[in-house]
Specification:
Elements: E1 3-12, E2 15-25, E3 30-34, H1 41-49, E4 56-61, E5 64-65, E6 76-79, H2 91-102, H3 108-114, H4 130-142, E7 148-152, H5 160-175, E8 179-183, H6 187-193, E9 196-201, E10 204-209, H7 211-218, H8 223-229
Parallel strand pairs: 3-8, 3-9, 6-7, 7-8
Antiparallel strand pairs: 1-2, 1-4, 4-5, 9-10
Helix pairs in contact: 7-8
The protein binds adenosine-5'-triphosphate.
Length: 237
């Protein structure tokens, strides 16, 4: 699913967060949206989702502007950074509820097994550990088949085994030609997963390109150092 973003602006009060983001996202690739805390990564993602309304600029998905047309949203699977689950319902009830709402086939059984969630199905969400809540969040995101997958800090709280499963899931989706956007502060994860780095700085895309290009541009020996050094090299968007 191709996304075109043109001259996107967004401010909250006096805080001008996005100052003219131009971006094309093509299908079959994994993009990592990086940038310092508060640089606008979540704001950009939420603009694509229609959860934040931009002040200026345009977003088109499959060549259609998303303004006033919310139907495109059923083609997106979104993993929020902080899942606000209703505390008093059980894991099983939540999964059923979401399956009913989406009314499309789901791979919930395999995912529940994969992430070892069977023992938690009858527990209330408020009683789960942070990592277990994140596993539920992941099941809810990946159980439907959508061409665009947006993951905001997907690794938060996961143990090593769950992290491996998550990486396998993401690669399997990519192999099916899906478009995947990820934000993460875990550079090793980004390095393993991303085809393309999008680095947001001061409201604009400051760098767009492969990890190899980033290493070349910054003349650093590894990815983590390259990201840390990115702001001292000139813009390459
Ligand atoms: N609904 C809102 N109302 C007011 N300010 C907001 C709102 N949402 C975001 N902001 C502000 O916009 C800026 C960018 O926030 P955003 O969450 O997009 O950053 P981020 O790059 O995702 O940060 P992080 O790496 O910390 O997750 C921050 O200064 C934040 O306080």
């Amino acid at each position: 699913m191709t996304i075109h973003i043109e001259n996107l602006h967004k401010k909250f009060g006096k805080n001008q967060v996005l100052k003219g983001v131009d971006l094309t996202i093509t299908e079959g690739h994994i993009y990592a949206i990086l940038g310092p805390n508060g640089s606008g990564k979540t704001t950009l993602i939420k603009s694509i989702l229609g959860m934040v309304i931009p002040d200026k600029g345009q977003i088109s998905i499959l060549d259609r502007p998303i303004k006033k047309d919310w139907k495109y949203r059923k083609h997106i699977n979104y993993l929020p950074q902080i899942a606000n689950f209703p505390p008093n319902i059980k894991v099983r009830e939540l999964i059923h509820m979401i399956t009913d709402l989406r009314n499309s086939p789901s791979a919930k059984k395999e995912l529940i097994e994969r992430f070892g969630l069977e023992p938690f199905l009858n527990k209330k969400l408020s009683t789960l550990s942070g990592g277990t809540k994140q596993k539920v969040n992941i099941v809810l995101t990946f159980m439907f088949n959508s061409p665009l997958i947006i993951l905001d800090e997907p690794t938060t709280g996961l143990d090593p085994r769950a992290l491996i499963y998550l990486k396998e899931l993401i690669q399997a989706e990519k192999a099916q030609g899906k478009t995947i956007l990820i934000t993460s502060h875990i550079m090793q994860f980004v390095q393993e997963m991303a085809d393309e780095i999008l680095y947001l700085l001061e409201g604009e895309i400051y760098f767009k390109g492969s990890i190899a290009k980033l290493l070349e541009d910054t003349q650093q020996k590894n990815f983590e150092h390259a990201i840390a050094a990115i702001t001292t090299t000139k813009s390459h968007a």
